[in-house]
Amino acid sequence: MFRKTALFMLLVLLLAPSAWADEAEVVSAEPAAISQDAQPDEMTLRENAVNQKAAELEALAANLADREAKLVRQENDSAAKARSINAESRRISGISTSLLGRENQMTRRELDLKAREAELARREMTFAQESQKFTEASSALAGRESDIAKREADLAAREAELNAKIAAKEAADSLTAREADLVKREAALTEREATGARLSALEADLNARDEALKAREEAVAGRESAVTENEKKLAESTGKVTAHEAELAQKESALNTRESELDANNKKLSEATASLSERESALMSREAESARKAADIQELETLIKELPAFDPNSSTEAAMILTYKIPAQKRRELIAMQREAYSRYSSNRITQALESYTAAFEAEPTANYLAAYWAGLSAERLRNRRDEALEWANRALEINPDYRPAQELKRRLEAPARSTNTQQRRRTTSR
Q1: Which of 3.40.50.720, 3.40.50.1980, 1.25.40.10, 3.30.70.790 would CATH assign to domain 316-430?
Q2: Residue 420 in this model has a pLDDT that exceeds 60
Q3: For residue 35, pLDDT beyond 50
Q4: For residue 157, how many C-alpha atoms fall within 13 Å in the half-sphere facing its CB?
Q5: What is the DSSP-derived secondary structure letter of residue 382?
């Protein structure tokens, strides 16, 4: 609009001198009358000039219109460029946002990689510690084997000593039998001596009677001498019997002492035999314990060889139970229970499988997170038991928070509940 106004004013200014000239000609009519022949040519010239100026003005107006159209196109182009620049800036902003997100993602991945490297370093350190423990256990086992060899040598020596004692006891038993035979012989000899004494007395009496019959005169003297002699003999016999009785009493006391000593030796021998039996049983139990420890060490070696085959934070195999820090016999029982439960699970006997996994978990509730995970899977497959499955997943994560299968099971079980709560909130809001 401004351009049109300026063009109109320019046209007025260009046409104004010709109008003023016409007025001058009207006022001064007399000179115009004098030169009437020359006036048409001047008017023509002026008209031609005006037409020329008008043509120039039209050309200028057309030029101005072209320039205005060009400016409008340039403005439109500028607006289009501005829009494209805005779109490009928005695209660049989105790209920069995406790049920032990717950079954050890469940062998180770097942090995860660092955490995994730290975990790997920790596992390597744990493996080194386990290896060192295994080496120490091997050295301790070698020391115990040497101790057992020494103890076996000591037992062999003690066995030889006991054999010697047994031989001595047999000799003592034979000596006791000989002493009993000697006692019997001494008793028989004593009885024979008493009989001889009686026979001697009878013979003396007969001799005395014979002498009395032959010579009564010498009877008193003979009898007195016989009586004196018999008294002496009787005194001697009495002394012999007393000495023999004292000797027998002494032998009896010696035999009693020997018998008490033999009883004490038998008691000691019984105690030594019992102690030897106890030591043999202890040695057998220690050998059995050594065999169990050797089996544990063999199983630990197998575990160390098989450890790279699975990750205890991601594996769902029964062999993962070997990583539990529990006795070896308990690990074997848990592996057997796990396999039996999985056999029921794979044959679609889900209720029985849940019962078996529950029993396996209750057998070792502080370590068996694998049984808790499989119990959660079994409960998930049963109708209206998702809450129980979520409880099993939480039990597994309480034992091992890094166990990824239990984490995935928990997310899967919580997802429908979250969507249901969201739908309920939306319904409440719409109401």
Answers
A1: 1.25.40.10
A2: no
A3: no
A4: 6
A5: S
